[in-house]
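Take a protein:
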Amino acid sequence: MEEQVLNFTEQFKWKPELLRGERLPENPSHFIVCGMGGSHLGARLLLRHNPALNISIHSDYGLPRESIERLRSALIVASSYSGETEEILDSTRSAVGAGLNVAVVTTGGALANYAEEHSLPLILIPKKGVEPRMAVGASMLALAQLMRDTELENKIRQAGENIDVQKYQTDGEALAKRLTGSIPLVYASTLNASLAYFWKIEFNETSKTPAFYNLFPEVCHNELSGFDVHEHTKELSSRMSAIFLKDSDDHPRIVKRMHIMQELLAERGLTTVNVELFGNNGLEKALNGTLSGVWTALALAREYGVPDAVTPLISEFKNKMLES
């Protein structure tokens, strides 16, 4: 998977080709991205760039529980890297059956075939042997194209060109050594929810470890109490390591909350580490934070001696789903 990281910036040179663009609605009120796993990460990272974008994520069967009037005013974006994702195929069929506006982003598979059969707007992402979670640049470019937002598309491309893909490799290796033998807990502000989620799934899929994430300030009102170490829970807490994703854009009170929580956890014997997010804007911070998480997860995979790209348990699960 290291090769995928080193070639990460190549996807930002890609120019999406929109098929049947004339079938897009003129002025959709909002965009609903239906995607699972890595297929909705691009949309999440765009929300880090600009939380005011009218984008929502639907990761389930069927359609979001919104009024039919609101659904009719939206563009439903069916996003599945493989084109075989069961939940997204179901969402797409539901949306088409309800007469809604639907566009498809995929590399091919059954979803691309369905788009052709029903003459849906379609963007085919290049299939270059990367994991779906590593195709976030292409996903963002495709979504900007469907949004008809040329300015956003140009900003995505520029941010991708400014990335130094090896910058965080050494830091990631050092962080992995500190995390070895523990369960990572990733904490961030609500602003950086997409990055905290990305780090969590990188640990799951690349390092093959359990990992979890939570957001400030909510974490201070419940999860923090889980570290109120007592004799019978001390061993449980000792298996955790807390990673704080810190951003100069965070609210000052969030910065203070992170600092206090880190102090309290360290006093109780937990490993705590800071990861600073750098970049000239939200997009650069999102992409740099993404690569920082990938390098850390890759190094942790090497520490454990596990294959870093394949996800055999997910494949086994999908095969069992097909049996029923």
User: Anything to note?
Assistant: The chain has 13 helices and ten strands. The chain has a mean pLDDT of 93. The beta strands are 18-19, 31-34, 55-58, 75-80, 101-106, 122-124, 183-189, 212-216, 240-246, 271-276. The first helix runs from residue 2 to 6.
